[in-house]
Amino acid sequence: MAAVVSMPGELTAGEYRAGLALAEAIIPGSATIPAADETPFERAQEAVRDFHPSAVRPWRMALRALDAAAIAYTGRSFHALSSRKQEDLIVRWQTDPVLKSPLNLVGLIYKFAHFDRDDVYDRMGGKLNVVTSLEQPRWLEQVHRADAWTEGDIECDVVVVGTGAGGGVVGRDLPDRGYAVVFVEEGEHHRRDSFDGRAISAHRRFYRGALSVGNSPMPIFMGRLVGGSTAINGGTCFRTPSWVHERWCEELGTDVLSQGAMAPHFDRVEQLLEVQPSPRETIGPIADFIARGCDALGWSHAPVPRNAPGCDGKGFCDLGCRTDARLGTNLSYIPAALGKGALLLTGARVESVLLEGGKRAAGVEAVTSSGKKLRVRARTVILAGGAVPTPLLLLKQGLANKSGQVGRNLSMHPSTGYAAVAEEPMHGPGHIPQGYGCDEFLRDGILMLCAQPDYNVMGVIFPLSGQRLMGALDQIEHMASFGLLVRDQTANGRVWRDVGGLPAVTYNLGPEDVRRMHDAMVHASEIALAAGAHTLYPFVVGHPPLEGRRDLEAFRREKLGPTDFVWTSYHPLGTCRMGTDPKTSVIDTDHASHDVPGLFVVDGSAVRGPLGVNPQLTIMALATRAAGRIADRIG
Asked: What mean pLDDT do residues 43-58 have?
């Protein structure tokens, strides 16, 4: 056991002892994976502080709760137990209805800090390839850090808040129509030399985080850099399913968003992004694995369409693309807009919409990390920060909310993972993370895609601790990994005013969400067994691996609840709902606010409900249409 060191002002000596012992027990190490020690434990403290100062208190409470539980179970503190007794406790706690949540919280942060260490990453077989030199195209002259801007207020035709799937697209098309456009982006402009493959630095620099509170906590991951989430996602490009278009037409009472009406906009986006199915050789052996299993079952399967021409599959997309193969808006749209004279201000968080005469949108006011304020005055304001930031901004100002619907109707696409041990090597980290999938149950609200993480991510996503975790990771080269997504039963979530600087989000998983995810894991298991896998890992908290058909049938009969799964969300949608009735919606079918002239919302918050597929292409097609409608409005 390492020496006890107190952390004045944060952890007491007792908390430190308990926390370090937990880290060592959760990640005990194996023949190929170094054990945890003081380094990941102290990096975990830093990660908690960096996320938000208010997170330190619940972190300390979780450590104290687990140490108190050890005393209640054994009469001794956790650090005073033998490694065998610590392992036994962890196995029990993983299924304890009270303790599994704090254990998973602590374990997640420890694993995040440990597996991102260079020495651990190297031992597991990873290799960082850092870009050292870049070309300097002329359009970069139009990118300015807001902190360094010295020319006072800016005047333009259109100000666009955000540069992702909504803002990046609408902001590119308007300069083509002769309008002066200024982008305001809270994050920074990162190029491929910033994408070093390190998970902790990526989440610090490229992501904004939120956590939904309800019947099961769910982290929400969103991009916070130029390009938004399009710069740090898997590049998956699905069109909106036909039945979703039909639902929109029925709900809106108009066919302006019908599949036929939207087709030209999808065509244009796919052309600009060079969307095409992933090549089999860069997807890797998991393509054959899924195809073999699906063929045996008679289920539909296919390579995933992606906006990544020339992708070599040698990097984890969610940490940024080091080859610029994935054409996020940071590469496919923003440079074109800047080349037409648009201006991009980075590192500026918009705090309010300027109003002319107290009624009409006339620009925005932003603040930088140093506290400097900046105004951009414009005839038209387009909010495109995403389904959490956009309603937060409107709620803060009490704007565009006569309907009372701002922040409501949040859907999340609840997601989780699944893994199986194949006979043949998969070598997932050496191939496209999300390149192949099964769409057999898409209409039923289930999407199953391969999800091959890098070495420094694989250990984080497994909902296991101790020797069970080590046993799974020792088979990493043969691991066939899946991402499972379900369409929400109801859009019941809500974004409230932020609390202490963090977004306040509530969301409850419905019985149908839980049933769908359970079914998704059963279906994934059936594919894996039909493909020849021998061990299955459903991502159910504390659940032992399934060994063969008999275990699967027992798993099929289990009664699972919301807290049994490890949920994540990458697709928040619907919080500024589009509609034709101002009493029940925030914006009209042209993306214009019902209440505030000159104000438009063009991002995931405008999408009416869950799609059941990755929403990137849908948001971009809607933004393409919106550019034309907005141009017609402003004349």
From this structure: 81
Q: What share of the chain is helix, strand, coil (3-state, %, to 5)?
A: 40, 20, 40
pLDDT of residue 11: 80
Contact 261, 621 (CB under 8 A): no
Of the pLDDT bands very low, low, confident and very high (cuts 50, 70, 90), residue 611 is: very high
Dihedral sign for Cα 74, 78, 81, 82, please: positive
Residue 131 has pLDDT above 80, yes or no: no
pLDDT at 477: 94
pTM, entire model: 0.95
Q: Rounded to an integer, what distance in angstroms lies between the CA atom of residue 325 and that of residue 331?
A: 9
The radius of gyration of the chain from alpha carbons, rounded to an integer in Å, stands at 24
What per-residue string of b and e applies to 322-347 under the rule 16 or more CB within 10 Å gives b?
bbbbbbbbbbbbbbbbbebebbbbbb
Burial string for 49-63 (b: 16+ CB within 10 Å, else e) reads: eebeeebbeebbebb
CA dihedral 74, 22, 85, 475 (to 10 degrees): 150
CB-neighbour burial class of residue 214 (10 A; exposed 0-12, middle 13-18, buried 19+): middle
What residue spans of 492-615 are helical by DSSP H? 511-530, 549-557
What is the rounded CA–CA span in Å between residue 158 and residue 175?
A: 9
The pLDDT assigned to 441 comes to 98
Using CA atoms, how far residue 530 sits from 297, 427, 444, in Å, is 7, 20, 22
pLDDT score of 7: 40
Q: Are 355 and 132 in contact (CB under 8 A)?
A: no
Is residue 475 predicted with pLDDT exceeding 60?
yes
Q: What is the mean pLDDT of residues 369-374?
A: 94
Which DSSP category does 411 fall into?
B
Closest CA to 103 of 565, 542, 562, 544: 542
Question: Tokens standing for 478?
Answer: 């043969």
In tens, the pLDDT along 494-505 reads: 999 877 667 899
